Amino acid sequence: MDGKLREPLRELAECSLPAALEAMGERWSFLILRAAFNGLYHFEEFQSELGIARNILANRLARLVEHGILKREAMPDDRRKIEYRLTDKGFALLPTMIALRQWGERWETGFPASPVLVDERDRRPIAQIDVRAWDGRVLTKQDLLWSLPEHVAGNPIDIRAAE
């Protein structure tokens, strides 16, 4: 990634990373998202499992709903009881969450987290999240460079194609 062209770091409006960080917020948002991936749906479950203050939880849930990561739905049998469910946009954060967990295991804690995330079919641990080329090759930092859209080979990548 040491090519001549650099990402314009001062042009935050054109960078998707600050926008993503704005949507997720901070630590509690990631922990709420992790809990949602683990099947928690109700305010009380999040509060009890995470030990988060009620006002902070309410704020973070509202932010995740506002950004379309979670959806807020009243239960049909009791309209006072609310569920928070991941949207497609929220589920799309799974590779990011796994990559952050794997990074933390390698660089912060130094040991595998428990429980281990496995493939349901064969119960084997999932592979490391990698950066891959369009043809599936694993890329290293030496394989990467920034390119202007008009210099990208082939068809432009449709970033919304996975929706």
Keywords:
single chain; 163 residues; mainly alpha; two-stranded antiparallel ribbon; 6 helices; 2 strands; 6% strand; globular
Topology:
Layout lengths: L15 H9 L2 H11 L5 H8 L3 H13 L3 E5 L7 E5 L1 H4 L2 H16 L54
Antiparallel strand pairs: 1-2
Question: How would you portray this structure in words?
Answer:
This protein has 163 residues and is mostly helical. Helix content is 37%, strand content 6%. The chain is built from six helices and two strands, in the order ααααββαα. Strands 1-2 form a two-stranded antiparallel sheet. The two termini are 29 Å apart. The model has no long low-confidence stretch (mean pLDDT 88).
What is shown here, in short?
The protein contains six helices and two strands.
Count helical runs.
Answer: 6
Q: Which H/E pattern describes the elements?
A: HHHHEEHH
Major sheet: 2 strands, antiparallel
| Spatial gap, N to C terminus | 29 Å
Strand content: 5-15%
Mean pLDDT: 88
The total of beta strands comes to 2
Helix content: 25-40%
Poorly predicted tracts of residues:
none
